[in-house]
Protein backbone atom coordinates (compact mmCIF):
# COMPACT_ATOMS: atom_id res chain seq x y z
CA UNK A 1 0.00 0.00 0.00
CA UNK A 2 2.91 2.33 0.82
CA UNK A 3 3.98 2.11 -2.83
CA UNK A 4 0.72 3.71 -3.92
CA UNK A 5 1.67 6.91 -2.16
CA UNK A 6 5.43 6.95 -2.69
CA UNK A 7 4.87 5.77 -6.24
CA UNK A 8 6.81 6.94 -9.27
CA UNK A 9 3.96 6.99 -11.75
CA UNK A 10 4.74 4.79 -14.73
CA UNK A 11 2.38 5.99 -17.43
CA UNK A 12 3.48 3.42 -19.99
CA UNK A 13 2.84 0.47 -17.68
CA UNK A 14 -0.44 1.94 -16.47
CA UNK A 15 -1.70 2.47 -20.03
CA UNK A 16 -0.54 -1.03 -20.97
CA UNK A 17 -2.62 -2.44 -18.10
CA UNK A 18 -5.59 -0.27 -19.07
CA UNK A 19 -5.34 -1.80 -22.54
CA UNK A 20 -4.96 -5.36 -21.29
CA UNK A 21 -7.59 -5.13 -18.56
CA UNK A 22 -9.99 -2.53 -19.89
CA UNK A 23 -9.98 -2.82 -23.65
CA UNK A 24 -9.27 -6.52 -24.01
CA UNK A 25 -11.93 -7.52 -21.47
CA UNK A 26 -14.69 -5.65 -23.26
CA UNK A 27 -16.00 -8.56 -25.31
CA UNK A 28 -16.24 -10.84 -22.28
CA UNK A 29 -17.85 -8.19 -20.12
CA UNK A 30 -20.33 -6.99 -22.74
CA UNK A 31 -21.36 -10.57 -23.49
CA UNK A 32 -21.86 -11.18 -19.77
CA UNK A 33 -23.91 -8.00 -19.38
CA UNK A 34 -26.03 -8.82 -22.44
CA UNK A 35 -26.65 -12.39 -21.33
CA UNK A 36 -27.55 -11.40 -17.77
CA UNK A 37 -29.96 -8.66 -18.89
CA UNK A 38 -31.64 -10.80 -21.55
CA UNK A 39 -32.06 -13.95 -19.44
CA UNK A 40 -33.15 -12.09 -16.32
CA UNK A 41 -35.73 -10.06 -18.28
CA UNK A 42 -37.18 -13.26 -19.77
CA UNK A 43 -37.37 -15.07 -16.41
CA UNK A 44 -38.86 -12.07 -14.61
CA UNK A 45 -41.40 -11.67 -17.41
CA UNK A 46 -42.45 -15.33 -17.22
CA UNK A 47 -43.19 -14.97 -13.47
CA UNK A 48 -44.64 -11.46 -13.50
CA UNK A 49 -47.09 -12.34 -16.28
CA UNK A 50 -48.73 -14.79 -13.85
CA UNK A 51 -49.25 -11.93 -11.40
CA UNK A 52 -50.28 -9.39 -14.03
CA UNK A 53 -47.22 -7.25 -13.25
CA UNK A 54 -45.62 -7.08 -16.68
CA UNK A 55 -45.04 -3.35 -16.34
CA UNK A 56 -42.69 -4.07 -13.40
CA UNK A 57 -40.32 -6.12 -15.52
CA UNK A 58 -38.30 -3.04 -16.60
CA UNK A 59 -37.48 -1.61 -13.16
CA UNK A 60 -36.90 -5.07 -11.69
CA UNK A 61 -34.36 -5.89 -14.38
CA UNK A 62 -32.69 -2.51 -14.20
CA UNK A 63 -32.40 -2.38 -10.39
CA UNK A 64 -31.20 -6.00 -10.15
CA UNK A 65 -28.65 -5.54 -12.92
CA UNK A 66 -27.39 -2.25 -11.46
CA UNK A 67 -27.17 -3.33 -7.85
CA UNK A 68 -26.20 -6.99 -8.01
CA UNK A 69 -26.08 -8.98 -11.21
CA UNK A 70 -24.03 -6.53 -13.24
CA UNK A 71 -21.17 -5.81 -10.84
CA UNK A 72 -20.98 -9.30 -9.31
CA UNK A 73 -20.97 -11.28 -12.56
CA UNK A 74 -18.80 -8.73 -14.37
CA UNK A 75 -16.16 -8.89 -11.61
CA UNK A 76 -16.33 -12.68 -11.32
CA UNK A 77 -15.47 -12.77 -15.02
CA UNK A 78 -12.71 -10.21 -14.43
CA UNK A 79 -11.31 -12.38 -11.64
CA UNK A 80 -11.15 -15.29 -14.07
CA UNK A 81 -9.67 -13.35 -16.94
CA UNK A 82 -7.53 -10.63 -15.37
CA UNK A 83 -6.83 -12.02 -11.89
CA UNK A 84 -5.62 -15.31 -13.36
CA UNK A 85 -3.33 -13.51 -15.81
CA UNK A 86 -1.87 -11.32 -13.04
CA UNK A 87 -1.18 -14.23 -10.69
CA UNK A 88 0.25 -16.42 -13.47
CA UNK A 89 2.52 -13.72 -14.88
CA UNK A 90 3.91 -12.55 -11.55
CA UNK A 91 4.36 -16.07 -10.17
CA UNK A 92 6.17 -17.16 -13.36
CA UNK A 93 8.46 -14.17 -12.99
CA UNK A 94 9.13 -15.14 -9.39
CA UNK A 95 9.88 -18.74 -10.39
CA UNK A 96 12.31 -17.71 -13.13
CA UNK A 97 14.22 -15.21 -10.93
CA UNK A 98 12.92 -12.26 -12.96
CA UNK A 99 11.65 -10.59 -9.79
CA UNK A 100 15.06 -11.05 -8.18
CA UNK A 101 16.57 -9.55 -11.34
CA UNK A 102 14.32 -6.49 -10.90
CA UNK A 103 15.47 -6.10 -7.30
CA UNK A 104 19.08 -6.62 -8.33
CA UNK A 105 18.71 -3.70 -10.75
CA UNK A 106 17.38 -1.47 -8.00
CA UNK A 107 13.73 -1.67 -9.05
CA UNK A 108 11.11 -2.34 -6.38
CA UNK A 109 8.98 -5.20 -7.84
CA UNK A 110 5.76 -4.21 -6.06
CA UNK A 111 6.05 -0.71 -7.50
CA UNK A 112 6.90 -1.98 -10.98
CA UNK A 113 4.51 -4.95 -11.23
CA UNK A 114 1.70 -4.61 -8.69
CA UNK A 115 0.94 -0.89 -8.65
CA UNK A 116 0.26 -0.47 -12.41
CA UNK A 117 -1.97 -3.57 -12.32
CA UNK A 118 -3.76 -2.34 -9.21
CA UNK A 119 -4.38 1.10 -10.71
CA UNK A 120 -5.34 -0.39 -14.07
CA UNK A 121 -7.99 -2.53 -12.42
CA UNK A 122 -9.06 0.31 -10.12
CA UNK A 123 -9.93 2.43 -13.16
CA UNK A 124 -11.06 -0.33 -15.54
CA UNK A 125 -13.34 -2.34 -13.24
CA UNK A 126 -15.95 0.41 -12.61
CA UNK A 127 -15.89 1.45 -16.27
CA UNK A 128 -16.40 -2.15 -17.42
CA UNK A 129 -19.11 -2.59 -14.79
CA UNK A 130 -20.84 0.55 -16.08
CA UNK A 131 -20.71 -0.83 -19.62
CA UNK A 132 -22.13 -4.17 -18.43
CA UNK A 133 -25.01 -2.31 -16.71
CA UNK A 134 -25.88 -0.34 -19.83
CA UNK A 135 -25.74 -3.39 -22.09
CA UNK A 136 -27.62 -5.54 -19.54
CA UNK A 137 -30.48 -3.05 -19.22
CA UNK A 138 -30.53 -2.54 -23.01
CA UNK A 139 -30.71 -6.26 -23.71
CA UNK A 140 -33.41 -6.64 -21.04
CA UNK A 141 -35.46 -4.08 -22.98
CA UNK A 142 -34.82 -5.85 -26.30
CA UNK A 143 -36.04 -9.17 -24.89
CA UNK A 144 -39.00 -7.82 -22.90
CA UNK A 145 -40.43 -5.35 -25.43
CA UNK A 146 -39.94 -6.57 -29.02
CA UNK A 147 -39.73 -10.31 -28.23
CA UNK A 148 -42.02 -10.89 -25.23
CA UNK A 149 -44.46 -8.09 -26.05
CA UNK A 150 -44.25 -5.91 -22.93
CA UNK A 151 -45.49 -2.38 -23.60
CA UNK A 152 -42.43 -0.31 -24.46
CA UNK A 153 -43.70 3.00 -23.07
CA UNK A 154 -44.61 1.47 -19.69
CA UNK A 155 -41.33 -0.42 -19.62
CA UNK A 156 -39.22 2.72 -20.19
CA UNK A 157 -41.32 4.92 -17.95
CA UNK A 158 -41.23 2.50 -15.01
CA UNK A 159 -37.56 1.76 -15.51
CA UNK A 160 -36.65 5.46 -15.30
CA UNK A 161 -39.11 6.07 -12.45
CA UNK A 162 -37.87 3.26 -10.18
CA UNK A 163 -34.16 3.26 -11.01
CA UNK A 164 -32.34 5.84 -8.88
CA UNK A 165 -28.92 7.30 -9.46
CA UNK A 166 -28.15 5.52 -6.18
CA UNK A 167 -28.70 2.14 -7.86
CA UNK A 168 -26.16 3.02 -10.54
CA UNK A 169 -23.73 4.31 -7.92
CA UNK A 170 -24.05 1.07 -5.95
CA UNK A 171 -23.17 -0.91 -9.09
CA UNK A 172 -20.18 1.26 -9.98
CA UNK A 173 -18.93 1.31 -6.37
CA UNK A 174 -19.14 -2.45 -6.21
CA UNK A 175 -17.17 -2.63 -9.46
CA UNK A 176 -14.47 -0.46 -7.90
CA UNK A 177 -14.36 -2.42 -4.62
CA UNK A 178 -14.36 -5.81 -6.36
CA UNK A 179 -11.59 -4.54 -8.65
CA UNK A 180 -9.48 -3.74 -5.59
CA UNK A 181 -10.17 -7.21 -4.17
CA UNK A 182 -9.13 -8.93 -7.42
CA UNK A 183 -5.93 -6.88 -7.77
CA UNK A 184 -4.84 -7.32 -4.13
CA UNK A 185 -5.51 -11.08 -3.98
CA UNK A 186 -4.05 -11.85 -7.43
CA UNK A 187 -0.89 -9.80 -6.93
CA UNK A 188 -0.41 -11.19 -3.42
CA UNK A 189 -0.72 -14.74 -4.74
CA UNK A 190 1.62 -13.92 -7.62
CA UNK A 191 4.34 -12.64 -5.30
CA UNK A 192 4.01 -15.63 -2.96
CA UNK A 193 3.68 -18.56 -5.32
CA UNK A 194 4.24 -22.25 -4.90
CA UNK A 195 7.43 -23.14 -6.73
CA UNK A 196 7.64 -24.99 -10.03
CA UNK A 197 5.44 -25.20 -13.09
CA UNK A 198 2.64 -26.99 -11.24
CA UNK A 199 3.00 -24.35 -8.52
CA UNK A 200 2.22 -21.59 -11.02
CA UNK A 201 -0.95 -23.47 -11.99
CA UNK A 202 -2.01 -23.92 -8.38
CA UNK A 203 -1.22 -20.28 -7.56
CA UNK A 204 -3.33 -19.11 -10.49
CA UNK A 205 -6.24 -21.32 -9.48
CA UNK A 206 -6.03 -20.10 -5.89
CA UNK A 207 -5.99 -16.48 -7.04
CA UNK A 208 -9.18 -16.96 -9.09
CA UNK A 209 -10.98 -19.04 -6.45
CA UNK A 210 -10.02 -16.73 -3.58
CA UNK A 211 -10.93 -13.60 -5.55
CA UNK A 212 -14.28 -15.08 -6.55
CA UNK A 213 -15.10 -16.18 -3.01
CA UNK A 214 -14.01 -12.82 -1.62
CA UNK A 215 -16.29 -11.06 -4.13
CA UNK A 216 -19.27 -13.24 -3.21
CA UNK A 217 -18.76 -12.95 0.56
CA UNK A 218 -17.93 -9.25 0.61
CA UNK A 219 -20.90 -8.52 -1.67
CA UNK A 220 -23.27 -8.96 1.27
CA UNK A 221 -21.41 -6.43 3.40
CA UNK A 222 -20.97 -3.99 0.51
CA UNK A 223 -24.71 -4.28 -0.21
CA UNK A 224 -25.60 -3.24 3.34
CA UNK A 225 -22.98 -0.49 3.40
CA UNK A 226 -23.69 0.96 -0.04
CA UNK A 227 -27.47 0.83 0.36
CA UNK A 228 -27.09 2.88 3.52
CA UNK A 229 -24.71 5.25 1.78
CA UNK A 230 -26.56 5.85 -1.48
CA UNK A 231 -30.20 4.99 -0.77
CA UNK A 232 -30.46 5.40 3.00
CA UNK A 233 -32.19 1.96 3.27
CA UNK B 1 38.96 -3.53 -0.27
CA UNK B 2 35.90 -3.33 -2.48
CA UNK B 3 33.91 -5.99 -0.63
CA UNK B 4 34.39 -7.58 2.78
CA UNK B 5 32.21 -10.43 3.95
CA UNK B 6 32.47 -11.01 7.68
CA UNK B 7 31.10 -13.91 9.74
CA UNK B 8 28.09 -14.26 7.46
CA UNK B 9 25.49 -16.71 8.73
CA UNK B 10 22.23 -17.85 7.18
CA UNK B 11 19.74 -20.55 8.04
CA UNK B 12 17.11 -21.63 5.53
CA UNK B 13 14.24 -23.97 6.40
CA UNK B 14 15.81 -24.57 9.83
CA UNK B 15 19.01 -25.85 8.31
CA UNK B 16 22.14 -23.73 8.68
CA UNK B 17 23.48 -23.03 5.18
CA UNK B 18 26.23 -20.56 6.00
CA UNK B 19 27.94 -20.82 9.39
CA UNK B 20 30.26 -17.83 9.36
CA UNK B 21 31.73 -17.03 5.97
CA UNK B 22 34.64 -14.59 5.69
CA UNK B 23 36.39 -13.32 2.57
CA UNK B 24 37.43 -10.12 0.80
CA UNK B 25 37.44 -8.99 -2.79
CA UNK B 26 39.79 -6.29 -4.05
CA UNK B 27 39.05 -3.94 -6.93
CA UNK B 28 39.26 -5.68 -10.33
CA UNK B 29 39.95 -9.03 -8.64
CA UNK B 30 38.28 -12.24 -9.84
CA UNK B 31 37.34 -14.48 -6.93
CA UNK B 32 35.87 -17.91 -7.66
CA UNK B 33 33.93 -19.66 -4.93
CA UNK B 34 33.76 -23.40 -5.44
CA UNK B 35 31.79 -25.91 -3.44
CA UNK B 36 29.36 -28.78 -3.70
CA UNK B 37 25.80 -28.40 -4.97
CA UNK B 38 23.48 -27.20 -2.23
CA UNK B 39 26.42 -25.88 -0.25
CA UNK B 40 25.12 -22.32 -0.04
CA UNK B 41 27.09 -20.68 -2.86
CA UNK B 42 24.04 -19.09 -4.51
CA UNK B 43 22.69 -18.07 -1.09
CA UNK B 44 25.99 -16.29 -0.49
CA UNK B 45 25.58 -14.25 -3.69
CA UNK B 46 22.00 -13.39 -2.77
CA UNK B 47 23.16 -12.19 0.62
CA UNK B 48 25.81 -9.99 -1.00
CA UNK B 49 23.21 -8.54 -3.38
CA UNK B 50 20.75 -7.94 -0.53
CA UNK B 51 18.15 -10.29 -2.02
CA UNK B 52 18.28 -12.19 1.27
CA UNK B 53 18.96 -10.90 4.77
CA UNK B 54 21.70 -12.63 6.79
CA UNK B 55 20.97 -13.96 10.27
CA UNK B 56 24.32 -12.58 11.42
CA UNK B 57 27.45 -11.07 9.97
CA UNK B 58 28.24 -8.19 7.65
CA UNK B 59 28.56 -7.49 3.95
CA UNK B 60 30.73 -4.37 3.72
CA UNK B 61 30.80 -2.65 0.34
CA UNK B 62 33.51 0.02 0.42
CA UNK B 63 32.92 0.19 4.17
CA UNK B 64 29.11 0.38 4.11
CA UNK B 65 27.30 -2.54 5.73
CA UNK B 66 24.74 -3.55 3.08
CA UNK B 67 23.03 -5.97 5.49
CA UNK B 68 21.75 -3.08 7.59
CA UNK B 69 20.24 -1.11 4.71
CA UNK B 70 16.59 -0.97 3.72
CA UNK B 71 15.45 -1.84 0.19
CA UNK B 72 15.47 1.85 -0.80
CA UNK B 73 18.88 2.46 0.75
CA UNK B 74 20.27 -0.60 -1.01
CA UNK B 75 19.25 0.52 -4.49
CA UNK B 76 22.16 2.94 -5.13
CA UNK B 77 24.60 0.14 -4.20
CA UNK B 78 22.76 -2.39 -6.34
CA UNK B 79 23.44 -0.15 -9.30
CA UNK B 80 27.17 -0.62 -8.65
CA UNK B 81 26.80 -4.39 -8.44
CA UNK B 82 25.71 -6.52 -11.39
CA UNK B 83 24.44 -10.06 -11.14
CA UNK B 84 24.20 -12.86 -13.68
CA UNK B 85 21.50 -15.26 -12.52
CA UNK B 86 21.75 -19.01 -13.04
CA UNK B 87 19.12 -19.05 -15.80
CA UNK B 88 19.76 -15.53 -17.05
CA UNK B 89 16.47 -14.15 -15.66
CA UNK B 90 15.78 -12.21 -18.84
CA UNK B 91 12.35 -10.54 -18.91
CA UNK B 92 10.56 -12.85 -21.32
CA UNK B 93 7.95 -10.29 -22.32
CA UNK B 94 10.68 -7.91 -23.57
CA UNK B 95 12.96 -8.10 -26.59
CA UNK B 96 16.74 -8.29 -26.22
CA UNK B 97 16.98 -4.53 -26.80
CA UNK B 98 14.30 -3.78 -24.18
CA UNK B 99 16.01 -6.09 -21.68
CA UNK B 100 19.31 -4.32 -22.17
CA UNK B 101 17.82 -0.84 -22.11
CA UNK B 102 15.82 -1.61 -18.96
CA UNK B 103 18.45 -0.71 -16.31
CA UNK B 104 19.44 2.43 -18.23
CA UNK B 105 15.84 3.62 -18.53
CA UNK B 106 15.14 2.80 -14.88
CA UNK B 107 18.17 4.66 -13.59
CA UNK B 108 17.59 7.54 -16.02
CA UNK B 109 20.01 10.19 -17.22
CA UNK B 110 20.59 8.79 -20.71
CA UNK B 111 19.37 10.15 -24.02
CA UNK B 112 17.81 7.83 -26.59
CA UNK B 113 20.99 8.01 -28.68
CA UNK B 114 23.21 7.21 -25.68
CA UNK B 115 21.03 4.21 -24.84
CA UNK B 116 21.22 2.94 -28.41
CA UNK B 117 25.02 3.32 -28.45
CA UNK B 118 25.40 1.56 -25.09
CA UNK B 119 23.10 -1.20 -26.26
CA UNK B 120 25.06 -1.80 -29.47
CA UNK B 121 28.32 -1.69 -27.53
CA UNK B 122 27.06 -4.17 -24.91
CA UNK B 123 25.89 -6.62 -27.58
CA UNK B 124 29.23 -6.30 -29.38
CA UNK B 125 31.04 -7.04 -26.11
CA UNK B 126 29.18 -10.33 -25.73
CA UNK B 127 29.58 -11.19 -29.44
CA UNK B 128 25.89 -10.88 -30.26
CA UNK B 129 25.65 -7.92 -32.61
CA UNK B 130 22.35 -7.37 -34.42
CA UNK B 131 20.23 -9.47 -32.03
CA UNK B 132 18.28 -6.50 -30.63
CA UNK B 133 14.88 -7.52 -31.93
CA UNK B 134 14.91 -11.15 -30.82
CA UNK B 135 12.79 -12.32 -27.90
CA UNK B 136 14.39 -14.38 -25.10
CA UNK B 137 12.32 -17.40 -26.18
CA UNK B 138 14.12 -17.37 -29.53
CA UNK B 139 17.60 -17.56 -27.98
CA UNK B 140 19.69 -20.62 -27.11
CA UNK B 141 20.89 -21.17 -23.52
CA UNK B 142 24.32 -19.72 -24.27
CA UNK B 143 22.87 -16.69 -26.03
CA UNK B 144 20.52 -16.05 -23.11
CA UNK B 145 23.48 -16.06 -20.73
CA UNK B 146 25.34 -13.62 -23.00
CA UNK B 147 22.37 -11.26 -23.23
CA UNK B 148 21.88 -11.46 -19.46
CA UNK B 149 25.58 -10.70 -19.03
CA UNK B 150 25.29 -7.74 -21.39
CA UNK B 151 22.32 -6.45 -19.38
CA UNK B 152 24.25 -6.84 -16.12
CA UNK B 153 27.33 -4.95 -17.35
CA UNK B 154 25.57 -2.25 -19.38
CA UNK B 155 25.47 0.03 -16.32
CA UNK B 156 29.22 -0.54 -15.81
CA UNK B 157 29.12 -2.12 -12.33
CA UNK B 158 32.18 -2.13 -10.10
CA UNK B 159 31.46 -5.67 -8.96
CA UNK B 160 29.88 -8.53 -10.92
CA UNK B 161 28.35 -11.59 -9.30
CA UNK B 162 28.04 -14.73 -11.42
CA UNK B 163 25.77 -17.52 -10.23
CA UNK B 164 26.85 -20.77 -11.93
CA UNK B 165 27.54 -19.07 -15.27
CA UNK B 166 28.32 -22.28 -17.18
CA UNK B 167 25.67 -24.60 -15.72
CA UNK B 168 23.61 -26.35 -18.39
CA UNK B 169 25.87 -25.29 -21.26
CA UNK B 170 27.89 -27.56 -23.53
CA UNK B 171 31.71 -27.42 -23.04
CA UNK B 172 32.29 -25.18 -26.07
CA UNK B 173 29.66 -22.62 -25.08
CA UNK B 174 30.82 -22.86 -21.44
CA UNK B 175 34.37 -22.09 -22.56
CA UNK B 176 33.17 -19.08 -24.54
CA UNK B 177 31.32 -17.80 -21.46
CA UNK B 178 34.48 -18.25 -19.35
CA UNK B 179 36.50 -16.28 -21.88
CA UNK B 180 33.81 -13.62 -21.92
CA UNK B 181 33.85 -13.29 -18.12
CA UNK B 182 37.63 -12.93 -18.19
CA UNK B 183 37.58 -10.46 -21.08
CA UNK B 184 34.84 -8.29 -19.58
CA UNK B 185 36.49 -8.08 -16.18
CA UNK B 186 39.76 -7.05 -17.83
CA UNK B 187 38.15 -4.54 -20.19
CA UNK B 188 35.77 -2.94 -17.68
CA UNK B 189 38.18 -3.33 -14.74
CA UNK B 190 35.44 -4.74 -12.56
CA UNK B 191 35.79 -7.15 -9.67
CA UNK B 192 34.01 -10.47 -10.06
CA UNK B 193 32.74 -13.17 -7.76
CA UNK B 194 32.01 -16.35 -9.66
CA UNK B 195 30.20 -19.15 -7.93
CA UNK B 196 30.60 -22.52 -9.60
CA UNK B 197 31.32 -26.20 -9.20
CA UNK B 198 32.73 -26.38 -12.72
CA UNK B 199 36.50 -26.62 -12.11
CA UNK B 200 37.44 -25.89 -15.72
CA UNK B 201 35.52 -22.65 -15.49
CA UNK B 202 37.04 -21.88 -12.08
CA UNK B 203 40.67 -22.32 -13.23
CA UNK B 204 40.01 -20.30 -16.36
CA UNK B 205 38.59 -17.28 -14.58
CA UNK B 206 40.07 -17.13 -11.09
CA UNK B 207 42.72 -14.87 -9.63
CA UNK B 208 41.91 -16.45 -6.28
CA UNK B 209 39.69 -19.33 -5.21
CA UNK B 210 37.73 -20.16 -2.06
CA UNK B 211 36.38 -23.60 -1.29
CA UNK B 212 33.08 -23.37 0.59
CA UNK B 213 32.55 -26.46 2.69
CA UNK B 214 29.88 -27.06 5.34
CA UNK B 215 28.96 -23.40 5.50
CA UNK B 216 32.48 -22.02 5.90
CA UNK B 217 35.41 -21.08 3.71
CA UNK B 218 37.53 -24.20 4.13
CA UNK B 219 40.40 -23.36 1.80
CA UNK B 220 41.60 -20.21 0.08
CA UNK B 221 44.35 -19.78 -2.49
CA UNK B 222 45.38 -19.19 -6.07
CA UNK B 223 44.29 -21.70 -8.72
CA UNK B 224 47.78 -23.20 -8.59
CA UNK B 225 47.60 -23.60 -4.81
CA UNK B 226 44.20 -25.25 -5.08
CA UNK B 227 45.48 -27.64 -7.74
CA UNK B 228 48.55 -28.48 -5.67
CA UNK B 229 46.65 -28.88 -2.40
CA UNK B 230 47.17 -32.18 -0.57
CA UNK B 231 44.13 -31.60 1.65
CA UNK B 232 41.93 -34.65 1.03
CA UNK B 233 38.67 -32.66 0.92
CA UNK B 234 40.01 -30.10 -1.56
CA UNK B 235 41.77 -32.77 -3.60
CA UNK B 236 38.63 -34.92 -3.85
CA UNK B 237 36.50 -31.95 -4.88
CA UNK B 238 38.98 -30.70 -7.44
CA UNK B 239 39.42 -34.16 -8.94
CA UNK B 240 35.72 -34.98 -8.69
CA UNK B 241 36.24 -38.06 -6.52
CA UNK B 242 33.39 -39.15 -4.27
CA UNK B 243 33.72 -41.28 -1.18
CA UNK B 244 31.22 -43.72 0.26
CA UNK B 245 30.60 -41.34 3.14
CA UNK B 246 29.69 -38.45 0.80
CA UNK B 247 26.02 -37.74 1.19
CA UNK B 248 24.06 -36.71 -1.85
CA UNK B 249 23.19 -33.09 -1.11
Key structural traits:
heterodimer, A: 233 residues, mainly alpha, B: 249 residues, alpha/beta, Rossmann fold, six-stranded mixed beta sheet, four-stranded antiparallel beta sheet, 38% helix
Describe the protein.
The complex is a heterodimer of chains A (233) and B (249). By secondary structure, chain A is mainly α. Chain A has one domain (9-231). Chain A has helices at residues 2-5, 11-23, 26-51, 57-95, 98-104, 109-147, 152-162, 165-191, 197-231. In chain A, α4 runs antiparallel to α6 and α8 runs antiparallel to α9. Chain A is elongated. Chain B has 249 residues and is an alpha/beta fold. Chain B has 2 domains: 1-80 and 159-249, P-loop containing nucleotide triphosphate hydrolases (Rossmann fold, 3-Layer(aba) Sandwich); 95-156, no CATH class. Helix content of chain B is 38%, strand content 25%. Chain B has helices at residues 41-49, 71-78, 96-107, 112-125, 141-153, 171-188, 199-205, 223-228, 232-239, and strands at 3-12, 15-25, 30-35, 56-61, 64-65, 81-84, 159-163, 191-196, 208-213, 216-221. In chain B, the strands form 2 sheets. Chain B has a 6-stranded mixed sheet with strand order 6-7-8-3-9-10, with helices on both faces. A 4-stranded antiparallel sheet of chain B has the order 2-1-4-5, with helices on one face. Chain A binds chain B through residues 93, 96-98, 100-101, 103-108, and chain B through 46, 49-51, 71-72, 74-76, 78-79, 81-83, 85-87, 89-92, 102-103, 106-107.
Describe how the helices and strands are arranged:
The complex is a heterodimer of chains A (233) and B (249).
Chain A: H1 2-5, H2 11-23, H3 26-51, H4 57-95, H5 98-104, H6 109-147, H7 152-162, H8 165-191, H9 197-231
Chain B: E1 3-12, E2 15-25, E3 30-35, H1 41-49, E4 56-61, E5 64-65, H2 71-78, E6 81-84, H3 96-107, H4 112-125, H5 141-153, E7 159-163, H6 171-188, E8 191-196, H7 199-205, E9 208-213, E10 216-221, H8 223-228, H9 232-239
Parallel strand pairs in B: 3-8, 3-9, 6-7, 7-8
Antiparallel strand pairs in B: 1-2, 1-4, 4-5, 9-10
Helix pairs in contact in B: 3-4, 3-5, 4-5, 6-7
Amino acid sequence: MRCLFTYRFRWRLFLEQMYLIGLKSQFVILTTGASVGAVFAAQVHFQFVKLGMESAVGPTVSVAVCRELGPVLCCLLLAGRVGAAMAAEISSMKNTEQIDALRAMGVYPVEYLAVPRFLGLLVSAPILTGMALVVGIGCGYLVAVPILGVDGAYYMDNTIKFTDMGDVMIGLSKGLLFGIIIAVISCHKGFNPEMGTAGVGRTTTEAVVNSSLAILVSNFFFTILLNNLFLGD
Amino acid sequence: MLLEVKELKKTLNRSPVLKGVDFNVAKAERLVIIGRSGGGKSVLLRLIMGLLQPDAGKVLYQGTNLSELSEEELNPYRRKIGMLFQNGALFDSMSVAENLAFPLLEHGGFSEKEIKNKLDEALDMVDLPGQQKKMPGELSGGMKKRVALARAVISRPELMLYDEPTTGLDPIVADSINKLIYRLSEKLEMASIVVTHDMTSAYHVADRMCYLHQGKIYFEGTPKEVQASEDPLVKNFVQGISEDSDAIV
